[in-house]
Design brief:
Elements: E1 2-7, E2 11-17, E3 24-31, E4 50-55, H1 59-70, E5 75-78, E6 84-85, E7 88-89, H2 100-113, E8 116-121, E9 124-130, E10 136-143, H3 145-152, H4 167-170, H5 177-204, E11 210-213, H6 217-221, E12 228-230, H7 234-242, H8 247-250, H9 266-276
Parallel strand pairs: 1-4, 4-5, 8-11, 11-12
Antiparallel strand pairs: 1-2, 2-3, 6-7, 8-9, 9-10
Helix pairs in contact: 2-7, 3-5, 5-9
The structure holds adenosine-5'-triphosphate, pantothenoic acid (PAU) and potassium ion.
Residues 8-9, 56, 97-99, 101-102, 122-124, 126, 141 line the site of pantothenoic acid (PAU).
Length: 279
């Protein structure tokens, strides 16, 4: 079995992948914390022959995790943001400072779709752009839905947006605090994504396929106007592409990869931008 680990600021997500059949056998998530000890929520390491890790947690968390895993698992691979990988050139002035989850998302998106706009809706919402030739432009970081809500301190932090909500309902003015907050932060997130996507495609003169991932991807997806695909395993896809272990991975296949969404034309994107500014 291969253990893939995505250590985020809030949640540490894992999945177990069968090295022979490439099937995903199980998944889970635990709170990210200093002491990451195998327990009820952590897979049995006896069956694990290789681990691949993406971590944006504090260095101490990663060090502890790696030290612990090395005692039981022979192969431990830790992803890093590099100046260049798999045909993608990192757009950061200091490439190592780009969050490795963003880098892996960009690599997976490029491998799947060529150029792309990769959006990760987690603790933060990150929006990264890769041009068809592999140039990563950099991106945008916006507070995620939960962080926006907590920062308001209006006593509504524990009332999450119902992930089954229809986008239309979330666009109505709220008539109680909890709705005003939930609809407000939802609008803030989806308007940012829609506008940033249009602006960058306009600047670059290219309509890019949009890929969404992260804990809030499904609910945010309903408010994103342009065609897009939700890819819950996008960061894992970057791990597979960076450290291919199975036969399928060596052939460039990433588990759970969606079909490539066909972007609307650049003309339509530009018309939408002009309309939104009442030009
Ligand atoms: N069971 C859950 N526990 C916590 N957050 C959840 C859960 N399910 C969905 N979410 C939502 O997912 C978001 C967390 O995103 P994600 O699962 O991508 O993890 P993350 O650790 O925050 O990611 P990162 O720190 O890498 O950005 C939260 O903002 C929250 O609204
Ligand atoms: C922005 C987050 C928190 C998103 O998970 C992560 O990618 C991160 O810690 N990045 C480092 C800062 C940067 O990417 O510029
Ligand atoms: K994430």
């Amino acid at each position: 079995m291969i253990l893939d680990l995505d250590i985020g600021n809030t949640l540490s997500k894992w999945r177990l992948k069968d090295a022979e059949s490439s099937e995903i056998r199980s998944r889970g998530a635990v709170w990210t914390r200093e002491e990451w000890r195998p327990g009820a929520d952590i897979p049995n390491l006896d069956v694990v022959e290789a681990v691949r890790i993406s971590s944006v947690a504090r260095a101490a968390v990663l060090e502890e995790t790696v030290a612990l895993l090395r005692r039981q698992v022979r192969q431990v691979y830790v992803a890093r943001s590099t100046p260049e990988a798999l045909g993608v050139v990192n757009g950061y002035e200091e490439p190592g400072r780009l969050g490795v989850d963003r880098w892996l998302g960009a690599l997976a998106g490029y491998q799947l779709a060529g150029g792309c706009c990769a959006v990760d809706c987690g603790s933060a919402i990150t929006i990264d752009f890769v041009l068809p030739g592999g140039v990563h432009l950099g991106g945008f970081i916006v507070p995620g839905l939960r962080l926006m809500k907590e920062s308001l301190k209006l006593g509504t932090r524990n009332v999450a947006i119902d992930p089954e909500s229809e986008a239309d309902a979330l666009l109505e003015p709220g008539r109680r605090t909890v709705d005003a907050v939930n609809h407000g932060i939802y609008m803030a997130a989806v308007s940012a994504i829609n506008r940033i996507y249009s602006e960058v495609c306009d600047q670059q003169g290219v309509a890019l396929p949009v890929l969404l991932t992260g804990g809030d991807a499904r609910v945010i997806s309903r408010g994103v106007q342009v065609p897009h695909a939700v890819w819950p395993d996008m960061v894992y896809g970057g791990l597979e592409a960076s450290f291919p272990l199975t036969f399928a991975e060596r052939a460039g296949k990433m588990s759970g990869a969606p079909g490539v969404p066909e972007p609307v034309s650049l003309e339509k994107i530009r018309a939408g931008l002009a309309f939104s500014m009442l030009l």
